[in-house]
Amino acid sequence: MSALSALPFLKPVHLRSPRSSPGGQRRHTLPASEFRCLSPEDAVSVFEIEREAFISVSGDCPLHLDEIRHFLNLCPELSLGWFEEGRLVAFIIGSLWDQERLSQAALTLHEPQGSAVHIHVLAVHRTVRQQGKGSILMWRYLQYLRCLPFARRALLMCEPFLVPFYQKCGFEALGPCQVTVGDLAFVEMQHPVRGHAFMRRNSGC
């Protein structure tokens, strides 16, 4: 059984298309929305969305194209993309971390033995912002992490103005992050993730 088929909240959402069959019955369907893990082939689309979302705000991107490819090769199972009619509209990229708090090394490393999922970036395409897609995608991502047996918590760092958004997603602030990027300072945030056994009993994972 594939990971997708085992996780109902990642299955495509279908809408009926008005296209009719030869007999006049409307039977054709199109996947209006699909959530799936990303692959290295998605890297360019990911980078285009990220570059537009972040450069105008902070002047730089959390992940450059080679870093996106790096993580999507090492740990594609820790990414999640939202596709509408085949087009990527929002995404999250994560990797594993094996320490209590994030450090500068967490920006580039994937620690396979870690139990903390470091969320590097969440971005939404400019044409579909202000529609709540970031919150929905984060909710689905956290539900997905709860079905991974090794995941115990999610960590991220963000600029102070984004703290209220992540608090609404269930994250708590841990205080100033040790990581700096140029002149930017960040707040580190955490979300507990329950283990696989709990979710299997309670949500069919």
UniProtKB/TrEMBL annotation:
PROSITE patterns: GNAT (PS51186)
Domain of life: Eukaryota
Entry's Gene Ontology BP terms: circadian rhythm; melatonin biosynthetic process; response to light stimulus
Signal peptide positions on this chain: none
Cell division as UniProt keyword: no
Enzyme class: transferase
Pathway: Aromatic compound metabolism; melatonin biosynthesis; melatonin from serotonin: step 1/2
InterPro entries: Acyl_CoA_acyltransferase, GNAT_dom, SNAT-like
Molecular functions (GO terms): aralkylamine N-acetyltransferase activity
Keywords, ordered alphabetically: Acyltransferase, Biological rhythms, Cytoplasm, Melatonin biosynthesis, Phosphoprotein, Transferase
Cellular component aspect of the GO annotation: cytoplasm
TM stretches of this protein: none
Protein name per UniProt: Serotonin N-acetyltransferase
